[in-house]
Fold:
Amino acid sequence: MKTIEELRELRESMQRKMSLRKAGDDETVRVVVGMATCGIAAGARPVLSALVDEVGKRGLKNVIVTQTGCIGVCRLEPVFEVYGPDGSKTTYVKMTPEKALRVVSEHLANGRVVEEYTIGAAEREEARK
Amino acid sequence: MKELALNVLDLAQNSIAAGARRIEIDVAESEAENTLEIAVSDDGAGMEPEQAALAADPFFTTRKTRRVGLGLALFKQEAEQSGGFFRLESEKGRGTRVWATFRLDSIDRPPLGDMAATLAALVQGAPDADITYRRKSGGGSFELSTAELRRELGGVPLAEPEVLRWISRYVAENEARLSRGRGPGES
Structure:
């Protein structure tokens, strides 16, 4: 059973870890997940949780995962956007937890955009139909 | 929505968008009364009476990106379809309370679903809000208060993945304990 004592132990180990972290890093990558009704109904909650878990597991200290409302492309939800330190923006659409893990390992950890999951690829696909 | 926990997440996102500092989520089942009650209350911006009256209308929204607002409308429809009712009380400058009752044994009632994942997602999105989750059933009760967790954690942010995992497991284990506490043949 999870107890408050465990939380206190967690606090001690976390405080040690956090003191090692660099402050004011300008290499920050922001990941913004659409969590309005459209996103939630389409499966944004497990996508968000996969992102948070994987970024934590890999210890990607320069990556911040945040939430927003409707991004405006409800038919392509779940959607998240990645804002790079260079000001670039990549919109990933029709996400699943599995696809999100691939974006973490290729894009967030190694800086390679997963082209096939982007809004550009989805729109080209729709145009072909 | 496939699970009521997703409606709860959606309702609480409205609270966050309304600038709430305090969000209270109550989920209570009563076998005796054959009800499942869900309430989400906040101290956010609140609404004028005219706006509150229209809030559960799918073709009314304050959003700028599109012209339908489905969250409250869906929740209301789900409650009414499963033999329950929906209420919304709001006061400008004071906050909003959304409250629905479902018939526990209605086949049209979506399952409660994964409240652990909903709470982890909420805390991740609003680590500075005081979120209280109170859960009751015939099998017992429990409570999660992020204000209390914050005190225990000292300076460690609630949105840290390790803390979110703790929250998620704490809720999941207590939910499981509550369902084990119910009598045989009940679900």
Helices of chain A lie at 4-18, 37-42, 44-57, 97-108, 119-128. DSSP finds five helices and four strands in chain A. The first helix of chain A runs from residue 4 to 18.
